[in-house]
Design brief:
The chain has 305 residues and is α+β, with helices and mostly antiparallel strands. The chain is built from 6 helices and 19 strands. The strands form 3 sheets. Strands 1, 2, 3, 4, 5, 6, 7, 8, 11, 12, 14 and 17 form a 12-stranded mixed sheet that branches. Strands 9-19-18-15-16 form a 5-stranded mixed sheet, with no helix packed on it. β18 and β19 form a beta hairpin. It binds manganese (II) ion.
Length: 305
C-alpha cells in the first residue's frame, strides 16, 4: 500500500491517506489516537495502529472520502519523526568521486535535524552565496516499530515502508549535522510504499535529475550496507521510534545546485519526488569550512543511461 500525508482540501487539517493510482483516500477517521493537534501526526498514528486497521484499509474506496492527487497539498510523509538518521559514504562509486578515504564502516551514521524536512513540491532554500550546495538522491526507510538491538535477520519486521529523500548538502569542513540540516535540506516523499508492495530494495533503482539532466543512477543492490544491516546497526546505537527515518546514502553523481534548479528523484515503485531550488535572500557564510572537508567532483557529468 501507499500512504501519504496531506492537508485536507477543505479544512486544511493534517491528514493521512491511501494513494491508489491518481486518487488519495482519507483514512484519518479510522485512527483511534487524538487528531485535534498535529502531534503526533496522523501518519505516526497510522504506523502505530497499522496492524489493527490494515483490514479496513483494503476496501478503502468503499468508505473513505477521496480527491484527485492533483487537488491536495502533499506534506512530508512523516512530518514529525523523532530523528532522521543518515548513512554517509554507502556506495563505492560515491566514495571514489569524493576521494574519500573512509566509508560507512569507518564513519557510522549521522543525524539530520527533523526541522530540515521539506514537503514534495517545496523549495530548497540555499542560505549562502559563497558556498557550494549539492543534491544527494537517496532511498529512505521509515521505521514501523520501536527498535533496539535488532538483528540483521529480524530487521525487515521493523520497516514500515520506503520513500524518496534528498539529502541536500553544503560542501566543506563543517560538521555534517550543520552542513545537512539547514531548513528545507531534507525533501521527502511523495508517499511511503509498504514492503509488501515495494519488495526487496536491492532489486530497485534510483534516478536523480537536476533541471532535466540525469546526474545519478543507482541500484540499491550496490549499497555497501544494505537496508537490514543499516536498521540493525542504527538500532544498536540508538532506540528507533515509530516514524523515524533512516536514509541510506547517495550514489555517484552529486553536483552543485543553483537558483532556479528543479530536482527530481525517481525510485521505481515510489516516486517521483520533485522540488525546486531558490537562492533568494542568500547571504555570506559566517563559517570558514569552504576549503576543508571532503572534496566533491568539480563538474557534473551526466549519468550513463
Ligand atoms: Mn547523503
Amino acid at each position: 500500500m501507499r500512504f501519504a500525508s496531506f492537508r485536507h482540501p477543505d479544512s486544511g487539517v493534517l491528514s493521512v491517506g491511501v494513494v491508489r493510482d491518481d486518487t488519495v483516500f482519507d483514512i484519518t477517521e479510522v485512527l483511534a489516537a487524538t487528531r485535534s493537534a498535529d502531534v503526533p501526526s496522523p501518519m505516526r498514528c497510522l504506523i502505530h495502529e497499522y496492524g489493527s486497521v490494515r483490514g479496513v484499509l483494503e476496501d478503502v474506496s468503499s468508505w473513505a472520502s477521496s480527491w484527485p492527487l492533483s487537488d491536495v497539498a502533499l506534506e512530508v510523509p512523516v512530518p514529525d519523526p523523532s530523528k532522521v538518521v543518515a548513512a554517509p559514504v554507502n556506495y563505492v562509486d560515491h566514495k571514489v568521486e569524493m576521494s574519500a578515504q573512509s566509508q560507512i564502516d569507518h564513519l557510522g551514521v549521522f543525524l539530520k535535524a527533523p526541522s530540515s524536512l521539506l514537503a514534495p513540491g517545496g523549495t530548497v532554500r540555499l542560505p549562502y552565496v559563497d558556498r557550494r550546495f549539492d543534491q544527494e538522491g537517496e532511498l529512505a526507510v521509515v521505521i514501523g516499530r520501536q527498535a533496539s538491538q535488532v538483528s540483521e535477520a529480524d530487521a525487515a519486521e521493523y520497516v514500515f515502508g520506503y520513500t524518496c529523500l534528498l539529502d541536500i548538502t553544503m560542501r566543506g569542513g563543517e560538521d555534517r549535522s550543520t552542513r545537512k540540516s539547514f531548513d528545507t535540506f531534507t525533501p521527502m516523499g511523495p508517499w511511503i510504499v509498504t514492503p509488501d508492495e515495494f519488495g526487496d530494495p536491492s532489486r530497485r533503482f534510483l534516478k536523480c535529475s537536476v533541471s532535466g539532466v540525469t546526474r545519478q543512477r543507482a541500484s540499491f543492490g550496490d549499497l555497501i550496507w544494505s537496508v537490514p544491516r543499516l536498521v540493525a546497526y542504527v538500532s544498536s546505537v540508538m532506540t528507533l521510534y515509530v516514524g523515524d527515518v533512516i536514509t541510506t546514502g547517495t550514489p555517484a553523481g552529486v553536483g552543485a545546485l543553483t537558483d532556479g534548479d528543479q530536482i527530481v528523484v525517481e525510485i521505481d515503485g515510489i516516486g517521483p519526488l520533485a522540488v525546486s531550488v531558490s537562492a533568494q535572500g542568500a547571504d555570506r557564510c559566517p563559517t570558514l569550512g569552504a576549503t576543508s572537508g571532503p572534496v566533491p567532483p568539480p563538474t557534473v557529468a551526466p549519468a550513463a543511461p
